[in-house]
Design a protein that fits this description.
- By secondary structure, this protein is mostly helical.
- It is built from 4 helices and no strands.
- It has helices at 2-8, 22-36, 44-50, 55-78.
- The radius of gyration is 17 Å and the shape is elongated.
- Mean pLDDT is 75; it is low at 1-6.
């Protein structure tokens, strides 16, 4: 677990935080769950249940986030440079 902490630079103890939106709180909860259960390799069902989503909905959200990131990267590369 020490190596994982070094790679993602998480402190040994994480104070509870409040987040401006429920979506950010859900992302933080998912990251914390994955961090705490990294050695167990939790299933999709376990990860989805932890953030109160169905496995199907979790995959849809992950796919949508990935699609948005790819689209944003394409738009940045294809925008004309201003000289």
């Amino acid at each position: 677990m020490q190596g994982i902490r070094r790679i993602i630079r998480l402190p040994r103890s994480r104070p509870k935080q409040s987040f401006p939106s429920p979506a950010l709180a859900r992302v933080a909860a998912a990251i914390e769950y994955l961090y705490d259960h990294a050695r167990e390799q939790p299933s999709l069902e376990a990860r989805a249940a932890h953030v109160h989503l169905s496995p199907n909905k979790m995959l849809q959200r992950l796919s949508l986030a990935h699609a948005k990131a790819v689209l944003a990267a394409c738009m940045i590369r294809s925008s004309p440079s201003r000289a």
